[in-house]
Amino acid sequence: MTAPAVSRPAAGGTAPLLEVRDLNAYYGQSHVLHGVHLKVMPGEIVSLIGRNGAGKSTTLKSIMGVLESRTGSVRFEGQDLLKLSSNRVAARGVAWVPEERAILGNLTVRENLELPPLRPGGWTTERAYEAFPVLRERAHHSGAKLSGGEQQMLAIVRVLRSAPKLLLLDEPSEGLAPVIVQRIGEMLARLREEGLAVILVEQNLGFATKLADRHYVLVDGQVMDEVARSEVAQRRSALLRYLSV
Ligand SMILES: Nc1ncnc2c1ncn2[C@@H]1O[C@H](COP(=O)(O)OP(=O)(O)OP(=O)(O)O)[C@@H](O)[C@H]1O
C-alpha cells in the first residue's frame, strides 16, 4: 500500500500527529532499522521498549533528522520530515531530549533555561521553576554540578520553551532515584493533559507502563509487538520477556 500524500483522519477519528512507515536507518554500511512503523496521536504518550541495541534511540534520531541516512516515510501533521534538517524538524514542533541530556555544563541553570528561544505558548523560566522548584534553588549553579535528576529535569523543561507538540524522550528515568522518576512522570502526565504528545524510550517497564497509552516493542530494528494500556496487565510477562537479556 502506498502512503497518501497527506495523512487524513480515519473515518470519525483524528489524524495521527506522527506517522512512521517502513523506516530504515543506517550508520554508514550498518543497516539498523528495518521497516519501523508507528504512530502517535495528538496528546498521546507512546513508549518504545526493547533491549539494548534494539534501535530505540536510532528511531528517535531518525525522526528528529539527526541521523540522516534513512528511507521510508516520517509524517508529522501530514508533512514529510525526511526532507527536512533537524533544525527545521524542531521548528515544526518536535523536541528531542537525548539520553546524554544535552544541557550545557558550563552555563548556569538559568542560562541553560534562557538560551533556547521562547516561542508563543512555550515554558517561561518561571514556569520551569514552578514545576521543579529545585531548579530555582540551583539557578546560579553550573549545569555540570547538578545531580543526574536535576540535569534530567533541566533537559526536559528547557526544550519546552519552544512549545513543542511532540517530545522525544530517550530514557528519562535512567539512573534516577524513584522519587525523581515519579516527579518527571507526574509532569509528563500533566503535559499530556495540555495536549503534548510524547515518545518515551524506556527500559524501565514500571515507569513506561504507568505513563504510556501504548507501547511498541522493538526487536532488532523492527516493531515486533504493540500493546495498549488496557492489555498491559495480561501481557506483562511477554513484555518482560522482550526486555530480558
Ligand atoms: N553511532 C553509531 N554508529 C554505528 N552503530 C551504531 C551507532 N549508534 C548505535 N549503533 C548501533 O545501532 C544499533 C541500535 O542502537 P540504538 O542505540 O538505537 O539502540 P537502543 O535500542 O537505543 O539501545 P540502547 O539503550 O543501548 O541505546 C545497535 O546495534 C548499535 O550498536
UniProtKB/TrEMBL annotation:
Recorded family membership: Belongs to the ABC transporter superfamily.
GO molecular function term, any single one: ATP binding
SMART domains tied to this protein: AAA
Annotated source species: Deinococcus irradiatisoli
Top-rank taxon: Bacteria
SUPFAM superfamilies: P-loop containing nucleoside triphosphate hydrolases
Domain ABC transporter: 18-245
Gene3D superfamilies: P-loop containing nucleotide triphosphate hydrolases (3.40.50.300)
Name this polypeptide is given: ABC transporter ATP-binding protein
